[in-house]
Amino acid sequence: MEARFLLGFLLLLSLSSFAFAIYEDQVGLADWHKRYIGKVKHAVFHTQKTGRRRVVVSTEENAIASLDLRTGDILWRHVLGKNDAVDQIGLSLGKYVLTLSSQGSVLRAWNLPDGQMVWETDLQISNPSNSFLHVLGNVKSGRDSLSLVCNGGSIRAVSSIDGLVVWKKDLSVDGLKLKHVFQPPESDTIYAIGFIDSSLIALYHINAKTGELLKHATQASSVDLSSEISAISSDSLVALDTSRSNLLLIKFMAGTITNHKLPLSDIVQDFSGLAELIPTKSNDIFVVKTPSNVAFIKVKGDNEIELIGKADEAGIVSDSLILSEEEQAFAVVHHSNNAISFQVRINGREALTEGIKIEDHRGHVKRVFLNNYVRTDKSHGFRALIVMEDESLLLMQQGEVVWSREDGLASISDAVVAELPVEKEGGVSVVEVEHTLLEWLKGHMLKLKGTLMLSTPDDMAAIQAMHLKSTERNKMTRDHNGFRKLIIVLTQSGKVYALHTGDGRIVWAHLLTPLLQSESCPSPSVLTLRNWRVPHRKALQENPSILLVGRCGAGPESHGFLFIVDSYSGKVLETQILDHSIAEVVPLPLADSSEQKLHLVIDDKLNAHLYPRGSDALEVFVREMANMYYYKVENAKEVIKGYAFKKGCSTGSSAYCFGTRELWSVVFPSDSERIVATARRKINEVVHTQAKIMTNQDVMYKYISKNILFVATVSPKAAGGIGSAAPDEAWLVAYLIDTVTGRILHRVTHQGAQGPVHAVVSENWVVYHYFNLRAHRYEMTVIEIYDQSRADNKDVMKLVLGKHNLTAPITSYSRPEIATKSQSYFFTHSVKAIAVTTTARGITSKQILIGTIGDQVLALDKWYLDPRQTANPSQEEKEEGIIPLTDTLPIIPQSYVTHTRQVGDLRGIMSFPANLESTTHVFSYGIDLFYTRIAPSRTYDSLTDEFSYVLLLITVVVLIVAILVTWAMSQKKDLQEKWR
Amino acid sequence: MNPSLSFLSLLSLLLLFSSALSFQSDELPFNDDDEFEGLRSSPGSASVAPPVRRRPDLDISSASDSKSLQFSLEHSLGDSEFSVAGTFTARLKSWTHGAQTLTKLRFTRNAISDTEKGLFERLLEDDDFYTIRIPSNVLNPSGKDYVVSSVRARCLPRESLDEHFVIHTDGVNVLSVNYGSAGGCQYPRPLKSPSKWSFSSYTVLKNSEQAPRTPTFVEQIIASENALEEGLQPPEKSFWAKYWMYILPIGFVLVNAMAQAANAAAEDQNQGGQPSQRAPAVRRR
User: Fold this and answer.
1) Where is the composition biased (Low complexity) (chain B) (predicted)?
2) Residue B218 has what pLDDT?
3) What is the tens place of the pLDDT at every residue in B242-281?
4) Nearest-Cα residue of chain A relative to residue B151
């Protein structure tokens, strides 16, 4: 009976980890969540007298957001899917935001105040191309206003109220591309102007209410037309020719078209290069941007034009902003060093010039959006939204940066972890101590009140706030538990940020590519970052540093460059433009005498270049070269090749350059297999034990190799999306390949399965996720690999007498005797990213971190995916905690590490160990960032924050007192005994 | 320590280990259901293949046609060019459903020439790679793609040069060839020459395994629920299995107590009878 009770208790204990979740008041203690929007590409201001001043933006990351114009905070945000790029945004009826996305095929209306979607219309466009949205203000059919979407030669008029397509007109002319639609005031006719095959100009008159074609006319153009146009008045527009050096003035009065060619060199002196037209609204003024300057040109009378203003340097020009009937303003922004000059020109003449200092890590200005407001003295004031090279967003007003947003963080491409500096001894002032003492006392009083349930709601709030801003977690020094670290991230724009794990603040940020920009390196772009020097025994005093590797041009053959950056300050320690290209950077598990990690840079001719350059690095590498191998997955050719290194390279005679020779290749038959996913173990993963005890007291040895590569291939027909192939035509083959010898360790085919495949490899197992077409469900499969050659080492006597082969060096050239166990499960979600927790010593059980379709991170215990499971586990198996085999993996709501947060457009999950074995850091990134610490087996090696030290102290004191008292009593008794 | 006590503790230790020492099958669970044609081929001698075990699922659709085809093995010693080193002979089976598979693989090695022997000795000295390749499409061997595999030359020599091919195929395509020594290859690799300069080859043809279908448990869950309702009890354990954790400490305590009692008796005897030569085990004040 007792045994059963004990068993039940144990089971309960093991089950308690199921229910591990955080309490509501613990949110934000160890985690932080930052929301971003990405690089802004369109902006529409909404600054009516009533209501909040806001700006609606759409971004390169396919987000639509409404920002508070005063603070830059996000009022609402929506992230559209990856294939749903926003083409254009507009406002309609003063209360809806219209977005045209998916190459002009989907039109949506969002409620401006709260971002609710009001309607969505699929425009069913057969051949999506460059389309544009035009909101007609004054088609008054009731209270409605129409939005016109033009795509090639067709126009659709959509009601702004309910999104119904009111009428549809297909002009059905081959090669017609509508360029501009407008409606003269108080008229029922819409004019649509388009180009047919860049040589004909066509004009259509359309009834705005019915879509009936009233009239049309075409005219041959005297030049080849490019796609850039600028509408300058109700009856004329300016187009640029394909050579980008001539202007064409097109007028269309009363159904006839006239065009007039104007060479740009006649208007702008010393014109050369390619011109660019800035879209304008009207007022007979247009803006031409040339490489050397910006010209404001006015059209006067018949085909006469006049240069009315010129901005000398080539700057960034905003779209036009209409102030009144006659006035139209542009913003011209120039960038120099760490200041930008912001100039507003009304009708070409200068109205306002401001110089604003900005941090030099933001790079150049990329885009400007201008907005005006009425000042207290009733004159025009201007504010501008500026997008910088690092994708950050600034609001500028009255010569100041009102707010800035680091939206570059929405496009993280790579991340590494770095340690913080060691805390310096001493140097704490008395005042600080007194202050903290008082705070400490206060805090404890509050806590005491809290525990005694005497606290008011205000006190509770104070306790919560204290928890949140506890200075301990935001210190800039290393802590004992390894909770405080720097996450160094690289964004698409090439900017590097260091984020503190305590609260996610930016410790430093640098945009390094402008430093390199020169003739030898025309367009630098950073590819990846790696840890270069990690604090270690010998290098504790040295600052850690990171390596940034990039390319000088777009092509794979362009020269590479590398930066070495100090992790504490972001200071560039070393810059080098390489004389070879970069295909891949391979970090080696070796370091030179100054603890700089060795890296091999593989170029496009398959030569390996060793960095750092130094004789001791070379010595270390050459000593180990015979045991170094490299593999390359050639996705395009469906081939995986393995290489060894040899001395002497094909391109130069540098001692640091090594050649490669092909050792092995795996050729997937291109008619039946396509590589869709590869995965391998983390290079720095620690495995605690190689043995696994089975339920029958048997020992299995894990096949632990750092060289296992998981490759998944699918049939070519199934390489598309789900639904592109029938179950009979789809199969998925999973391979485990040894990357030293090219040996296929295991190969298994899943019939009727297809991608997308996401896989994670850790220790001796691989877990992958795919779609099962037969079952119409997602599936996850686990494969565990066991080493049979060590299976004889089960005998205790052998182990005692040392007759085992456990310490013998392992070589991949031995034929491995492996056994695999595998099991498949259904899984409810589709997966965006997959990772596994890593801890400092690998003792803690693992959790699989799954980025779900809902942009959340789910922590799934590895033991749900255990090939040993059977439908009816025996008593022993139950004791060991093996759960009965189920066909579906359970999703427990409490196991979402992101709790209620969402990481918009989740792309990656990263897990890195803390010093405390039980705890691991989880950092997930997409458009948003989310960081938290999790303990997959609970924090068994540390006391929680709630632990009552006071109680412990009291207990100890009471015990000591009791000991003293009893000692005294026994003394007394002894004395009495002796007297007797 | 008292001898009886130490003996008893040894006994209990043995008892504890008995579970670990009970019979454990050390048989290798060899579940290779692929067609295995382990054959020894020495140059010049014709090889005899053992009977082929066919997979039952392949037997269902009977082979309508089978023809023999050949493809060559090429090798490269060090950095030299690839040259023909042997020939694989296989039967190409065409199934009624259109697929073609390779079966009955045989391999004959060419004899090692003197130059090759010299080169191989060089390889052994340098601990360099011995590389082989076979065409990835055996129907059309002139194609450019080869599957390549290498091994450190020092892994091969034993009596003769022992080599082991595992050819992974998918229909008529060769995905990869795993080439290596027949057994293990120790590290660090010592330099040794084979006593007989000939290859003895083993070849294995491997196809992909089919993943088992994901089990669905609806019926079983219902069944197990029914079983629960019936109140099916797990089989009773033996008395010892159930209560060993109680019996063992009690036994210890008993043994201890007995030993102590014996000691006390002995001491009493000593005190009563002849004077003791030994120091008493416990001195009491």
Assistant:
1) 41-51
2) 56
3) 788 888 889 999 999 999 888 887 776 665 444 444 444 4
4) A813
* pLDDT (0 to 100) of residue A718: 85
Q: How far is A738 from chain B (nearest CA, A)?
A: 10
Torsion sign (Cα): B269, B270, B274, B277 = positive
CA distance A940 to chain B (A): 27
Which residue has tokens 């840890």? A531
Mean residue pLDDT across chain A: 82
CA dihedral A894, A933, A38, A584 (to 10 degrees): -120
Q: Residue B124 in 3-state DSSP? A: helix
Which tokens belong to A292? 């050397």
Give per-residue pLDDT as tens, B225-251: 555 444 445 556 677 887 888 888 899
Instruction: Beginning with the edge strand found earlier in the chain, give each strand of the sheet holding A146-151 in spatial order.
Output: A131-135, A146-151, A154-159, A165-170
**Two tokens, residue A393:** 């967003």
Of residues A782 and B232, the one with the higher pLDDT is A782
- Which pairs count as long-range contacts for A511-514, CB under 8 Å and 24+ apart, including other chains? A511/A361, A511/A362, A511/A363, A511/A389, A511/A390, A512/A548, A512/A563, A512/A565, A512/A572, A513/A363, A513/A550, A514/A363, A514/A364, A514/A389
Residue given tokens 């007297």 in the structure block: A979
- pLDDT of A808-817, one tens digit each? 777 788 878 8
Cis peptide before A612 (omega within 30 of 0): yes
Return the bridge partners of B132, or none: B75, B149
Give A299-345 pLDDT, tens digit per residue: 776 667 777 777 766 678 888 787 777 777 888 888 777 788 888 88
CB A299 within 8 A of CB A249: yes
Asked if the model's pLDDT at residue A247 lies above 90, the reply is no
Question: How large is the ipTM?
Answer: 0.76
Is residue A77 pLDDT above 80, yes or no?
yes
Q: Can you tell me which residue has the tokens 């992958």? A: A768
- Name the residue among A781, A797, A784, A793 with its Cα closest to residue A733: A781
- Per-residue confidence band for B217, with pLDDT thresholds at 50, 70 and 90: low
Backbone angles phi, psi at A623, to 5 degrees: -60, -35
What tokens does A850 get?
Answer: 């799954």
Q: Least CB-CB distance to A668: which of B175, B210, B216?
A: B175
Secondary structure (3-state) at A718: helix
User: Distance (Å) from the C-alpha of residue B150 to the closest C-alpha of chain A?
Assistant: 5
Tally of residues, chain A: 980
| Nearest CB partner across the interface for B216, out of A3, A811, A887 | A887
Task: Report DSSP letters for A365-392, one per residue.
Answer: EEEEEEEEEE-TTSSEEEEEEEEETTS-
Q: For residue A616, give the H/E element and its range.
A: helix A615-624
CB pairs under 8 A between A and B: 154
**Residue A688: pLDDT over 80:** yes
Distances (CA, A) of A746 to A749, A896, B32: 10, 33, 11
| Predicted local confidence at residue A679, as pLDDT | 93
Nearest one of A23, A961, A26 to A470, comparing CA atoms: A26
For chain B, report the end-to-end CA distance as a whole number of angstroms: 22
* Amino acid symbol at A356: I
For residue B145, report the phi and psi dihedrals to the nearest 5 degrees.
-80, 130
Pairing, β B36-37 against β A929-934: unpaired
Decide if B81 touches A, using CB distance below 8 A.
no
Dihedral over alpha carbons A204, A206, A212, A216 (to 10 degrees): -20
Tokens 């008082």 correspond to A438
Q: Which of A923, A921, A922, A930 is nearest to A902 (CA)?
A: A930
pLDDT at A558 over 50: yes
Higher pLDDT, A391 or A443: A391
Contact present, A734 and A710 (Cβ < 8 Å): yes
